[in-house]
Amino acid sequence: MIISNLKALEGLLWGMALGDGLNRMHRFRKPPFLLHSATGTWFLSVFQAVFQESDLALKLEILSAPHYALALRGSQPSLAHTLHEVSMHHPTQKLLGDILPCMMPLAFYAQENELVQKIIEWTQVTHRHPRVISAVALLVGALRALLIDPKLSLEGQLEQGERLADKTLHLLFERREADTPQAIYSAYQALRHHVALAKGATDPRDLQVPLGFDGRDCPEQLVVYVLALASGENALERDFDLILEQGGTSDILAPLLVSLVGFKQGVSVLPDSWSKILWGKDLWSRHLIALAQRDFYFPCLVEEEIKLSRQEQAALKELDHFQMVASTRNQLALF
User: Fold this and answer.
1) Average pLDDT over all residues of the chain
2) Taking the CB of residue 140, how many other CB atoms lie within 10 A of it?
3) Cβ of 119: how many Cβ atoms within 10 Å?
4) How many Cα atoms sit within 13 Å of 132 on the Cβ side?
5) Can you give the pTM of this predicted structure?
């Protein structure tokens, strides 16, 4: 796959890294923040699979294997925990992991028919419910529209996202595999309901998940909420603070918002102050340079992240709060 918009690629990549690294729900609540997490690994794995045709399911299984635990440490639910949940439970619409921001690289797929199949195939690695698949398609469709016109209105983004989601759900229905017609029809209803709410909203805050409800149970609402925020005129820092107030869903919303703003406006819109307090930029820089070459992609994701994890270990030992962080992470139990 060939990138035709390096500005969008760079903004998406660094927006994802900064949004995830600065999220308060992240395992590091005090500086230094490190750009290294299960979400980042998952995101980069999808990027690899887009630009270098490969089996995403196999890639994620390898990355979450016990002997690679250093490469996937992070706040629950980690990728390994997500894969375990999927294998043990029936399909659920609840977001078990940070799949929405991680699937954003799919927007760079050129052929729409192939894209629809990839959305289903790659989302089903971790989430099989039609509502989750529909939400991913809604997000990817909006991003593809922004690649063509970065100044496209929110209504235009929603229309293109809804069109791609409709096409994805139609293919799910035609396949008649594990998804019942009732579940697919429910996904259609939820998609139309939340898109209509977003088109009629005058303030993005009207689309927030109400207090007391878990936003992970409503993936479409998280997508339209972030699209509305990114299309508003507020400063990014203000919207980011609003996102952090969402509590348990901020680990999804924070990287989603910042990567979406970076995707639309480029990396220059991201505050310099954010980058200055973050460590571990080398890995992300290498990925960006490799992607920009167009003819190859950096293959050694696991090895590089393990090196970064060892540097992280050394840095954490020097921090006063290391014992507290180590006890709460319970890192080995995740694998």
Assistant:
1) 76
2) 29
3) 26
4) 28
5) 0.82
> What is the rounded CA–CA span in Å between residue 230 and residue 255?
12
Structure tokens at 38: 């299960």
Tell me the mean pLDDT in the region 208-234.
84
3-state SS track over the chain: CCCCCHHHHHHHHHHHHHHHHCCCCCCCCCCCEECCCHHHHHHHHHHHHHHCCCCHHHHHHHHCCHHHHHHHCCCCCCHHHHHHHHHHCCCCCCCCCCHHHHCHHHHHCCCHHHHHHHHHHHHCCCCCCHHHHHHHHHHHHHHHHHHHCCCCCHHHHHHHHHHHHHHHHHHHHHHCCCCCHHHHHHHHHHHHHHHHHHHHCCCHHHHCCCCCCCHHHCHHHHHHHHHHHHHCCCCHHHHHHHHHCCHHHHHHHHHHHHHHHHHHHCHHHCCHHHHHCEECHHHHHHHHHHHHCCCCCCCCHHHHHHHHHHHHHHHHCCCCCHHHHHHHHCHHHHC
Average pLDDT over residues 21-31: 59
Report the CATH fold assignment for 6-334: ADP-ribosylglycohydrolase fold (1.10.4080)
* pLDDT tens-digit map of 51-106: 777 777 777 766 665 544 444 444 434 566 666 666 565 556 666 667 899 899 99
Q: Taking Cα atoms as reference points, which of 124, 51, 43 lies closest to residue 91?
A: 124
Omega before 32 within 30 of 0, i.e. cis: yes
Q: Which residues of 252-272 are buried (b: 16+ CB within 10 A; e: fewer)?
A: bbbbbbbbbbbbbbbbeebee
Cis status of the peptide bond prior to 77, with omega within 30 of 0: yes
Q: Where are the domains of the chain?
A: 6-334
Rounded Cα–Cα distance for residues 306 and 303 (Å): 5
| Whether the Cβ atoms of residue 305 and residue 71 lie closer than 8 Å to each other | yes
Using CA atoms, how far apart are residues 135 and 126, in angstroms rounded to an integer? 14
